[in-house]
Amino acid sequence: MAKDKRDYEDFSIDPAAQEMLSRADKLGVDTAFSRADELSPCNIGGAGMCCKICGMGPCRLTKDGQTGVCGATIDTIQARNFIRAIAAGAAAHSDHGRDLAFTLKAVANDETEGYYIRDVAKLRIVAASYGINIEKRSPEEIANDLADLYISQFGQQRGKVACVIRAPKNRQKLWEDQGVMPRGVDREIVESLHRTHIGDDQDPEHILRHAIRTALSDGWGGSLIATDISDILFGTPAPILGQANLGVLKEDMVNVVVHGHEPTLSQMVVAASQDPEIIEYAKAAGAKGVNLSGICCTANEILMRQGIPAAGNFLHQELAILTGAVEAMVVDVQCIMQALVKLAEKFHTKVITTSPKVKIKGAVHIEFDEHRALTIAKQILRTAIDNYKNRGDIQIPKAVEDLIPGFSHEYINYMLGGTYRASFRPLNDAIMTGRIRGVAAIVGCNNPRSKQDYLHTYVTKELLKNDVLIVETGCGAIASAKLGLMLGESGLDQVGPGLKEICETIGIPPVLHMGSCVDNSRILTVLTQMVEEGGLGNDIDQIPAVGLAPEWMSEKALSIGTYCVASGAYVIFGGSSPISGMPDRVSDSDIVLRYISEGWEKLYGGKMEFIADPDEMIRRTLAHIDKKRSELGLPAYNPEKFGKSGDRKILAFEKMSIEEQRASLYGFAAH
Predict the structure, then answer these.
(1) One domain, residues 459 and 539
(2) Does this model's pTM top 0.70?
(3) Containing structural domain, residue 443
(4) pLDDT of 581 above 70
């Protein structure tokens, strides 16, 4: 039965989204928001208590003690469903890393068009960390060996994934002791599927131990590989001015929106859009040029490297087309709604699929190939330009916000210590003294079953008031960007006094944009560097830090959350739990839920919890941070202790008389 229809303000806190949803109603078209209202989720499947992995089912368990046809219990079914979701999420992110490894290999051997190694310094640092010889060798020679190493991590059968050496040493030993050290990316994903076939692994704790191993192969394997290679090929991000929201679309230009996740395509479309030949082609079609923008994680990739604006996050993909101003939406992989094609038919927009792995019925398919990358990117843009003449009525919201993205862990290192003394010491010291209470990573998707951006931004703003430094990736980062929280001067009146001092002194926003979803590996690197810097324990689980995914919806989010737990982090998911059970009817349904919290915390120091209420998320986050501070012997958080920043002292000092200045400096009145 359909739920009561929500108002536009209930769908999203974003005024641009509300405007486009109003337009959708007037035009009689549906969106993910309206479809979410029309479709009620299955409470049995949503609780993880439906098993459909063999032809004897689906088996829907609704009573205490009930089993499937094969005898599988509720906890076994929930564990199987959970690990399968983690395996799918790990496969998606790691396949992204695999494709980039093949691209790096091709670039090293001069087999591509338009790509080259942009960050030679990072190439040398990363290669040397794995023992690859870098002395008196060209970047291409080093890149070829690094590509071979990375490619081998996917099919490796024994040993351990090479990238884990970049985790804290105590954490590596813990993984060895617990038997969860990932051996090879593909091996762990395949074993997850094998273990959950009918008649295989039927011990929930044993299944969930391999869930940890599978997720680690993603976070400290495929995702880390993807981030490394993206930086090497396209440049390691550094702060740059950008913009976000649908107001970045232009009335007098050909609007091309890139959407998906793999930067090989989007980076080349950026290059092609700036080619004089393409600009002249657009002008000949009556436009002033090509205006490029991004949706979802592709938006973050080109935003943090080239400053290309973000049209929005996951739930903006349909809304961008609703403006009537988008000539082409160019997609590759992941988080692309099939509904785009049907919606685009009501306007003039062409949906162009480009990946050999992804086709959508009714879309234009122009297959991307790194060996002919620039040529194909120009073909895509010409297709969009040719479509400019077919525009009808357009309505572009005026909502747009400036932001400063690009805070890679390398730049944070430099930002804190400078060129010659790059260090995480100032960050650690700020936490140790209490100016910064702790750190929170707020990441993940949008979900149309909750109010778009509300949970992301509400939790962000409340934690900032409590002197918690925020780092963000993915759609969560774009949510804060649309609210104006990613500019140094914005929102500081809502930030706690100690954090405010740090932001003003260093010159950073209170929320740091760290990239796309695969770039959660950057957050792991930051936490590792904080451990190595000293003063905050000897492993990640001792740091006053929490990870949150308030509006999660994808299997990738579950993989990310699990590898963060395995790395020692407390992870909170908002919204509904995929293994919640029905406690009022099934007493066995919370066994798995308890295990991934209490059980995992005993083993790894990290835990995963699903909390729907945002105020409870905030309460538990602050309680965890304060607990970790206490265990480290750090002073209790006291917001009254700080708040007079250097800048404010200088301003106050300048207003003093000479006598008052001397008294302030030397502690006595002048005579």
Answers:
(1) yes
(2) yes
(3) 408-637
(4) no
